[in-house]
Each structure stands twice: as structure tokens, then as C-alpha cells.
Amino acid sequence: MSERSDRIAAALRDRLSARHVDVEDESHLHAGHAGAASGGGHFRATVVSERFAGLSRVAAQRVVYGVLHEELEGEIHALALRCLTPEQWEAEAG
């Protein structure tokens, strides 16, 4: 993990009481992209939180965007999200 992805993961864990958070910094895959020129990074995150219970996929992603609103103004240019409830996470683990 990069320092930026560590900070993003910590914010998600703290602000969503997340059971599991994995944030990958994929910025190196987007070198030369307009967003990379502005300093914002490209990230892929999996977040497991009870806060997503009863929400659609889009609504759960909106919760994450709300939590990371400050980071989205500069540190994050692109964020691919996978939001799961603990039950969904456990079912996938099988």
C-alpha cells in the first residue's frame, strides 16, 4: 500500500466502522492521464461495512463518496469501489 492508500483506508475504517478495507493505489497504471497530471491518484477499494445494509450498490458508493469528500477534492482522481455488507463478504468467502 502507498501512504495515500493507507490514509484512505484508515478514513474508511474509522468513519464507516468498516470490518474490512482494502485500498489499492493504481496510479502507476494511469501515468500520463489528465487526472495524474493534477496530482490525484487512481484507487480501487473494497469496503465491508454494516452501513451498507439495505442499500443499493449505488447508494452504498454514495456513502463512501460522502465519507471521502475531502480526499476526492484533491488526493483522489478516480475511485473504483466494491461495497459489501459483512453478510455479503462472508457469503463470498464461503
Overall description:
This protein has helices spanning 3-16, 34-37, 57-67, 69-72, 86-93, and strands spanning 20-25, 41-48, 76-84. With 94 residues, it is α+β, with helices and mostly antiparallel strands. The chain has a single domain (3-93), classed as GMP Synthetase, Chain A, domain 3, CATH 3.30.300.90. It has a 3-stranded mixed sheet with strand order 1-2-3. The chain is globular and about 35 Å long. It starts with a helix and ends with a helix. The model has no long low-confidence stretch (mean pLDDT 88).
Write the layout of secondary structure elements.
Elements: H1 3-16, E1 20-25, H2 34-37, E2 41-48, H3 57-67, H4 69-72, E3 76-84, H5 86-93
For the structure shown, list the relevant keywords.
94 residues; alpha+beta; GMP Synthetase, Chain A, domain 3
**What's the β-strand tally?**
3
- How much β-strand is present in the residues? 15-25%
Instruction: Tell me the number of structural domains.
Output: 1
Parts with pLDDT < 50 across at least 5 consecutive residues: none
> According to CATH, what is the class?
Alpha Beta
SSE pattern = HEHEHHEH
- CATH superfamily, by name, is BolA-like
Give the termini distance in whole angstroms. 26 Å
- Name the helicity range: 40-55%
Helix/strand/pairing category: alpha+beta
The whole-number mean of residue pLDDT values reads 88
What's a quick, concise take on this entry?
The chain is an alpha+beta fold and about 90 residues long. It contains five helices and three strands.
